[in-house]
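Researcher: Let's do a round of design. I'm pasting the structure tokens now; please hold your answer until I've finished.
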């Protein structure tokens, strides 16, 4: 079974909060599921002598809520860009700029809007949100978001159970800003999603198996997850709609309350080595930020929308922005759509 980047694995490798005492060198790492290479943790432990407690989460909102209410013990967390901005606003992050010597990053990652000087975050993996589809069932060479409103695909569509991606999809479809906080525009997006709802087989962030088995013919999905599905079923294709779509960057951050920040810094330095981050890219299908790793990456991922989109495609991608005090409006909208 292919596991989504955001599919929670209960009891995988429980986080040993507060377990490090005395001379133990420990790193408590909190990450999306299926978002690391099988050998990364093992090799880091062997080289550094640091024991890693590794826990996975299903939702960035859940991760943020735990940090916001004061759950302590996490040393290193992977967070999407808009969440990094929010965590900075709430003074939840340890400043990194004096402790990390950054390698050459890919140009579009040099100054991300959520942390332009990389003062609090280091880019980990990045990708796009687009449409995965079964080319045996859909033969029209689609290029638009409108495919996910095609009535002939009733109950053959899956939509990510992530409000930022799903509502953003509807805003793109309507030709509006995918980060809109305008109430009239958000009402139009809600009506569009309600129009789509009868066509949706299910709202899920674990969509790859549905694509592989042919139960879903078209899916709002993340590039790396679609790449994993394509490896099992070559009939699966992926495109970035002409109206625009999201570029996401998940970053490594250290909570201000981290009990072992030095261990977290050691892991970040380790990750930034080309031979390390290329393993993670090849295992997950998600691109990494380090220019020097590209010659080591699986050639199938280069100049490909599933991995490293060409420059002309990058120009039509948008970051998800921090919604500030309008976050609750998006929460309520998404709850209404799924009700």
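Researcher: That's everything. Go ahead.
Model: Designed sequence:
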């Amino acid at each position: 079974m292919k596991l989504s980047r955001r599919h929670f694995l209960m009891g995988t490798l429980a986080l040993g909060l507060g377990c490090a005492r005395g001379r133990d060198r420990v790193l408590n790492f909190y990450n999306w599921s299926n978002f690391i290479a099988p050998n990364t943790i093992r090799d880091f432990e062997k080289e550094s002598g640091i024991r890693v407690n590794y826990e996975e989460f299903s939702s960035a909102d859940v991760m943020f809520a735990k940090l916001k209410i004061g759950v302590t013990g996490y040393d290193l967390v992977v967070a999407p860009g808009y969440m990094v901005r929010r965590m900075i606003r709430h003074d939840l992050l340890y400043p990194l700029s004096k402790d990390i010597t950054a390698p050459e990053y890919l140009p579009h990652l040099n100054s991300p809007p959520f942390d332009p000087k990389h003062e609090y975050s280091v880019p980990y993996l990045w990708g796009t949100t687009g449409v995965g589809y079964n080319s045996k069932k859909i033969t029209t060479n689609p290029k638009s978001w409108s495919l996910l409103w095609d009535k002939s695909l009733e109950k053959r569509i899956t939509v990510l159970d992530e409000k930022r991606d799903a509502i953003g999809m509807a805003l793109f479809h309507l030709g509006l800003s995918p980060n809109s906080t305008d109430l009239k525009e958000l009402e139009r997006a809600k009506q569009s999603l309600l129009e789509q709802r009868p066509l949706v087989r299910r709202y899920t962030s674990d969509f790859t198996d549905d694509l592989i088995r042919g139960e879903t013919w078209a899916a709002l999905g993340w590039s790396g997850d679609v790449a994993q599905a394509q490896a099992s079923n070559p009939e699966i294709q992926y495109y970035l709609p002409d109206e625009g779509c999201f570029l996401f960057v998940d970053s490594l951050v250290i909570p201000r309350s981290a009990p072992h920040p030095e261990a977290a810094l050691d892991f970040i330095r380790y990750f930034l080595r080309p031979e390390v981050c290329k393993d993670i890219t090849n295992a997950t299908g998600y691109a990494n930020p380090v220019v020097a790793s590209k010659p080591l990456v699986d050639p199938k991922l280069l100049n490909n929308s599933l991995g490293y989109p060409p420059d002309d495609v990058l120009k039509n991608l948008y970051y998800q922005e921090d919604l500030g005090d309008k976050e609750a409006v998006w929460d309520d909208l998404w709850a209404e759509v799924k009700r």
